[in-house]
């Protein structure tokens, strides 16, 4: 008997838009559907996987959460993604649905195109691509505000054929979408939301549905079961890179840079967060996430910075064999001064 294809939902969106938060919600209201999750992160700390493993949803056990940390999924399709999918499909206990969280810097197009590879196409179909948008960041002009800077760089470097890397990625992720989730609407008012809707609509020729959300709280029935089969249409949703390099030049992430800072205990977390905010603002850091060791506290402190907005909460107890320590991933544009940021964070502790 021919097995039914397993639907796979691709969740994309820029750094910190709320992908992991939405997936966490999804796992907790998946109505008994068994979900396998493939998570890809930029920066190799595996924070998202940790956050999701800790969510305790019965519909997705730790075995069902697979982390791909060898770089952005769009660049490691052949080496990483296809073998992972093949292994998943060989399992006796196949999932009802596969959810893939791309890194915030990934282009969804090569990933979706991989579903046309023969070994995958017969068994899985892309249920839909969902693009999560940080509405507050869009309203603040985050993806459109550095035209001057890019123009200045272009004067310095004739080879620069890109628009702003943030803007380009934002458009590429929207271009791939079957459904757009305008997240973080709690941070803006009605006028801001109108700006976001107009801005998003102006970036894409197709008109996928747009829904609004807070903390990624969207019913599973809305996210899963779109039934689009996006792999058949992905050639019509080309990224800037594909349009510019039809000759097959490799795509890379040279526009962005990430590193991990590690240090000891943070005795004054409130003060540290405040000072970290300053460092982020001064050096235009895009994203910081990781865990801190707060002396006297049995739990580790999760730190999540998106631009200079920082969330923090005690996430889970340090394990018995686990070495306490503070480890943060820092992500910025390629010209971020790593040594200066390292020194500034060290001074902020
Ligand atoms: N105020 C507010 N914060 C949110 C909302 N959704 C997510 N966040 C916060 O935004 C931060 C980033 O959320 P994540 O879900 O980790 O974002 P992500 O897209 O998975 O991030 P990357 O994997 O780094 O690309 C976290 O601190 C979340 O708690 C929202 O609707 N409103």
TrEMBL record:
Residues 256-349 form the CobW C-terminal domain. Pfam families: cobW, CobW_C. InterPro entries: CobW (IPR012824), CobW-likC_sf (IPR036627), CobW-like_C (IPR011629), CobW/HypB/UreG_nucleotide-bd (IPR003495), P-loop_NTPase (IPR027417), Zinc-reg_GTPase_activator (IPR051316). It catalyses: GTP + H2O = GDP + phosphate + H(+). Keywords: Chaperone, Hydrolase, Nucleotide-binding. Transmembrane segments: none annotated. PANTHER family: COBW DOMAIN-CONTAINING PROTEIN, COBW-RELATED. Belongs to the SIMIBI class G3E GTPase family. ZNG1 subfamily. Zinc chaperone that directly transfers zinc cofactor to target proteins, thereby activating them. Zinc is transferred from the CXCC motif in the GTPase domain to the zinc binding site in target proteins in a process requiring GTP hydrolysis. This is Cobalamin biosynthesis protein CobW. It comes from Mycoplana rhizolycopersici. The lineage of its organism: Bacteria, Pseudomonadati, Pseudomonadota, Alphaproteobacteria, Hyphomicrobiales.
């Amino acid at each position: 008997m021919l097995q039914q294809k397993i639907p796979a939902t691709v969740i994309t969106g820029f750094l910190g838009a709320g992908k992991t938060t939405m997936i966490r919600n999804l796992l907790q209201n998946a109505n008994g559907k068994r979900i396998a999750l493939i998570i890809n992160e930029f920066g190799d700390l595996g924070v998202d996987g940790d956050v999701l493993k800790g969510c305790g949803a019965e519909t997705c056990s730790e075995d069902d959460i697979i982390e791909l940390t060898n770089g952005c999924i769009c660049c490691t399709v052949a080496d990483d993604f296809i073998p992972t999918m093949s292994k998943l499909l060989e399992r006796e206990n196949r999932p009802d649905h596969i959810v893939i969280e791309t890194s915030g810097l990934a282009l969804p197009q090569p990933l979706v195109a991989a579903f046309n590879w023969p070994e995958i196409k017969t068994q899985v179909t892309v249920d839909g691509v969902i693009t999560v948008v940080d509405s507050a960041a869009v309203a603040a002009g985050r993806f459109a505000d550095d035209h001057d800077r890019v123009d200045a760089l272009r004067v310095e470097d004739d080879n620069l054929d890109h628009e702003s890397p943030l803007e380009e990625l934002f458009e590429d992720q929207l271009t791939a979408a079957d459904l757009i989730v305008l997240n973080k609407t709690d941070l803006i008012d009605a006028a801001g939301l109108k700006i976001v809707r107009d801005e998003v609509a102006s970036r894409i020729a197709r008109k996928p549905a747009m829904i609004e959300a807070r903390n990624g709280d969207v019913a599973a029935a809305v996210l899963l079961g779109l039934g689009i089969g996006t792999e058949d249409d992905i050639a019509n949703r080309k990224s800037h890179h594909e349009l510019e390099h039809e000759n097959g030049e490799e795509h890379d992430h040279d526009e962005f840079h990430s590193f991990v800072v590690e240090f000891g205990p943070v005795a004054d977390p409130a003060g540290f967060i405040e000072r970290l905010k300053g460092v982020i603002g001064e050096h235009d850091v895009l994203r910081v996430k990781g865990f801190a060791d707060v002396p006297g506290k049995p739990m580790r402190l999760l730190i999540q910075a998106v631009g200079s907005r920082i969330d923090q909460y005690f996430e889970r107890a340090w394990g018995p064999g686990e070495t306490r320590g503070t480890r943060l991933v820092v992500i910025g544009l390629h010209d971020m001064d790593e040594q200066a940021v390292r020194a500034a964070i060290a001074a902020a502790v």
